[in-house]
Amino acid sequence: MITRFFSQPGLNAVLLSLLLLALALLAGIYIGWVMAHKEMGVSPRHGPDSAQLELSALREKLTVVRGDIQAQRTRSHVDSRALELVRSEMVAQKELTASLEEGLQFFRSLMVSESDTTGLSLRDPELVAGGSPNRIEYRIFVQHQSRTHETVEGTLSLQVLGFEGEKEVSYALPQLSEETDDGAMPLYFRYFQAVEGVLTLPKGFEPIRLIVAADVSKPRKIKVREDFPWVLQKQFINIGE
Asked: What's the whole-model pTM score?
């Protein structure tokens, strides 16, 4: 029966075609396998041992590639960190330059003061918030202009005006500071003096004005009184101290 089955001409042609197709598929698979190995830089081998060697080689290549990627990430992180440090340094230098320019402008303004005929003037007070809400640090410059460069002696007093609720009240320096007992700060200078201190405001008190009064006894009697608005600043002017 088998001989009869293969003796049919049409069937022989079909079987031959199927056989050739199977051989072509096998050849294609083999060629693809070889080309894939060539693309990965690995020579094709046969057998379980060869496959294990090829797998090890591929793993080694993968390890190398992963190491390269990690090195690139590390360099990128280091570069980003260095760039951030450079930017921070540039910002700090810019702030320092601005602060020094502000101090230079301040000293220039001292040289060209708009003082009155008495020769004594009070500059706008500097008020900076301290560590607690009610703690205020202050600095007030007193300037004296004289062709004879005389030494000035006297006192400086402060008074803070504001509200407690709806009631307007005022506090003198001894009520707000422990730095003085007689109500005034001493003055002794030739060109200018910076009077500094700390004020501790009562709870519930809202300051609105600061009255500054200078009472000079030498070289001659001079009294100057100024009323300034209560304005807080972020920091004192940098005068190179």
From this structure: 0.55
